[in-house]
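Good day; I would like, with your permission, to put a structural problem before you. What I wish to show you is a protein chain and, alongside it, a tokenised description of its three-dimensional fold. Here, with my thanks, is the record as I have it:
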Amino acid sequence: MNRTLLNKVRCLLISSGLSKSFWGDALMTAAYLINRSPPVPLSGKVPECVWTDSDVDLSSLRIFGCSTFALQNGDKLDPRAQKCVFIGYPNGIKGYRLWVRNQPGLKIITSRDVTFNELEMPCLSDTSNRETDFNIENTFNKIDLNPQDNQTREVIEEEENQPRVTTRDNTEHHYNDYQLGRDRVRRETRIPSRFRDFDLALNVEDLEPLTYEEALGSKNSEQWKQAMNEEMESLRKNNTWVIVPKPKNASVIYCKWLFKIKQENETTRYKARLVAKGFTRKKE
């Protein structure tokens, strides 16, 4: 699942022209999109619909990194809208997460009243904001899903009809410079609500097939076929069975396939095992 999300994060950052400091927003957007895309194991059903048992409105989907104008309430002579960049969807509320450019610090707002210009990608034309190296794999692999957010201060304005504003102390985040403490004893914690989309995407994407038909119908069918062929070849070499005529009135014990996805270092292995259904044997 890490590789799937990483590929989507890389594509979002490159296509939008945003810097690597926005990897967190790109990650949450990638998980948001995965949860609203029909995977093969769910037979065309959308994961979010299956999880919540309700319909999902896809009309709010927008192009990551496009230009936007957010309505703002100010003085009579102030501009009625503020130009921003779309960077994702807030968790738990309706609206859009927007980055206000040309502002001191890193100003993030959440607003419902937004006009989109999806033909304009402002960060692609800003050469000072683009980075030639998008190798963020090392950064992504070091993410702690439960960080103590000591480097970020969020201030939320609750005034009615005002967009929610988040201010961050530092203009540019260099996550490679962070020292993550691994030596201290970790206490049991709950996953924050902002990672629920990420967790749901993980459950759907890495779903192991329960039957032979599901394995052949999944997007990884070729890997499962190879795993089953390797299992059958191993059973033949070890002379696991001897083919004999079926005795009269004999109760036959059938077999079934078990499928498992194993992560070894940075590689994914698909394992298949053919086992006898001994629990179906009847006592005489």
